[in-house]
Write a structure and sequence with these properties.
The chain is elongated. The protein is mostly helical. Helix 1 packs antiparallel against helix 2. It is built from two helices and no strands. The longest helix is centred in the C-terminal third of the chain and has 31 residues, at 36-66.
């Protein structure tokens, strides 16, 4: 049960980091102006967020199906 909420925590942290990258550093005229380091950060944290959201929801569905 604790690992389920740990997954949710890391998914939330990853989502906040992704939003921060887009809000603080995106030039709204052109997305091409972002450096490759920022895009790499966004891609890595996106994978982390997706993995943890998937783990959280799959554990929640598994628990519902057991009842």
């Amino acid at each position: 049960m604790k690992s389920k909420y740990f997954n949710l925590f890391w998914a939330f942290v990853a989502s906040v980091i992704i939003l921060n990258e887009f809000i603080d550093q995106v030039n709204f005229v052109s997305l091409d102006s972002k450096s490759s380091n920022a895009w790499l950060l966004i891609i890595i944290w996106s994978f982390i967020a997706i993995k943890n959201y998937y783990s959280f929801f799959s554990k929640a569905n598994k628990k519902l199906n057991q009842n």
